[in-house]
Amino acid sequence: MTPVWVLLVVAVITALGGAAVGAFINDRGARTREALAWDRELERERVRHAREDSAREHEDWQRTFDERRIAYRDMLAAVETALHEYGRQLHISPEIWDPYDHVTASLNQFSVVQIFGSTEVVRLVGECWKHIVMTHVAAAQVSKEPDEAVEDLRREIVALHSAQQEFLMGVRSDLGIARLPTTG
User: Fold this and answer.
1) How confident is the model at residue 100 (pLDDT cuts 50, 70, 90)?
2) What is the DSSP letter of 92?
């Protein structure tokens, strides 16, 4: 027969060993659950940050698009005003014409387009601005030499109008606006 103290020692060792193994298994399970919960939380954070970044990028893109649209609109208005005023000079007496400096006004708008505009549209605006300068020079000559300068002014107005139309088509393309249907 086995002495009682051996049975008690075996029982204590078994109980302690079982408790240790149980604690180990429980701890391992808790660590695994915690790791899975941590991974899920990290994934949620990544998704949330990606969504916020996407929204922020869209807002930045929209803000830039709006600034670009406004810059294009203002430059088109400056070119249109210059065309109107220089065209008006053809129909009034050179002595009473008071030239407004469309060069400076359009340069201010050109500077804004250079900041927000696409490369192609900036090139087209540069052409418009060059023709505004050339038209202004021709307009200034009308009061000095009316006969010769009027034809030069007409040619420059036609060139400016052509540059304006190219600029308008470039703006429509850059902003993703469909081309206008052609008539006829």
Assistant:
1) low
2) S
- Assess contact for 171 and 65: CB atoms under 8 A: no
State the pLDDT at residue 101.
65
Structure-block tokens of residue 78: 């400056």
First to last CA, the chain: 119
* pLDDT tens digits, one per residue of 51-63: 888 878 878 778 8
Q: 64-72, long-range: CB within 8 Å, 24+ apart, which pairs?
A: 64/116, 65/175, 67/115, 67/116, 68/116, 68/117, 68/118, 68/174, 68/175, 69/175, 71/109, 71/112, 71/113, 71/115, 71/116, 71/117, 72/113, 72/117, 72/121, 72/171, 72/174, 72/175
Q: Which of 137, 157, 134, 133 is nearest to 145 (CA)?
A: 137
CB contact at 8 A, 75 and 128: yes
Residues 141 and 93: their CA atoms lie apart, in Å, by 13
Which amino acid is residue 133, in one-letter code? Answer: V
Q: For residue 19, what are its two tokens?
A: 């408790």
Six-digit token string for 145: 């030499």
